[in-house]
Each structure stands twice: as C-alpha cells, then as structure tokens.
Amino acid sequence: MPRALAIRLRFPRDAYSGADLGTPEPVPSPARVHAAVAAAAAGGPDAVPEGRVLVAAARHRRAVEWLEAHPPLAIRLPRWQPTDHPVVRYRRRVGESPDGTPFEPFSALDGPVSYFWPAPEEPEIVDALRELAPEIAYVGRVESAVIASVGVEDVADDDPDCLVAVSGRGPGEVLRTAAPGRLAA
Asked: Is the pTM of this model over 0.90?
C-alpha cells in the first residue's frame, strides 16, 4: 500500500462506545470519524460565524470535504472485545417510578484504531486536519473520550492488523463512510 493519510484514535479508557442503527459497533466507522472531524471544524476555535451559527473556516472545510471525496483505504484494528452487561439499572426520575434501562455496550480495545486515506497531494489538507485533531474530544458516545492525531505514513501491504477496503459483498466488517456533501448537509 502506498503512503497514506493516517488518522489515529487513542481511547484513554481503552474502551469505545457507539452504535449504528441500534447495533453496537466494535470500533468507530469511518463515517463516525468524519463526523467527529466535521464537528471539530464547525465548533472549534477557528470556526467562523455565518448568520447565527458557526461554520468551518475555509481551510478546514476543504479538508473535511476532501475526506468525503476520498474513500478510506484501510483500518488498522487493535484487538477488541465487545462487552454486554446483562444487568439493568434503575434510576429514580422526578415524579416517576423508577424505570429500568440497560447499560450501554462498549468494546474494550488494547490500542489505537488507525484509519488510512490516500495521501493528499496538497499539504494544506494534512495541515488542516492536524489543526483539527486536538479539537476532537470524543467519537461515538460522549463517554468515548479520544486523543486524535493525524500524519502521513507508509502502510505495509502485509499488515495482519489492517482491514483493506473492498467494494461489494463478502467476508469482513461493513463500515459506513461519509459521502460527498455530508458536511454541507
């Protein structure tokens, strides 16, 4: 595999909690990573007012739209173990009798999750994503605090921990990706 743009997510709790259509995710999908980058761009210190809302600065908008236009190449996964709590918690709410809710499932991770895109030809894209990385507070549910970093690196073709993106059906994980126009939506 050639040089690639790498977005690395390290979860300080060594746990990720998120779900897609009610089904627990083992790791965040590339679409969820895109959403976290977009939120950092539109809500970070460089966001600019447009009417009554904040929007991403032009250089950050270009970087987020670049991610939309280029599908990811691969994901390097740590070992992970899904958890499921068979217990129910009861919380007393004002004026109501206690109601039972299950605990949110999560995946225990033994390292960071790395996402790889083709290396951008414009270094400004990488620079903008590097600026946004420290602004990403969590991915998935809010309890999934994250430390994000961005770089360009070589990815070994024979890396056994890498899932390489393929089109069509077959064995493997199905992970959503962001489509062009997502930031605008």
From this structure: no
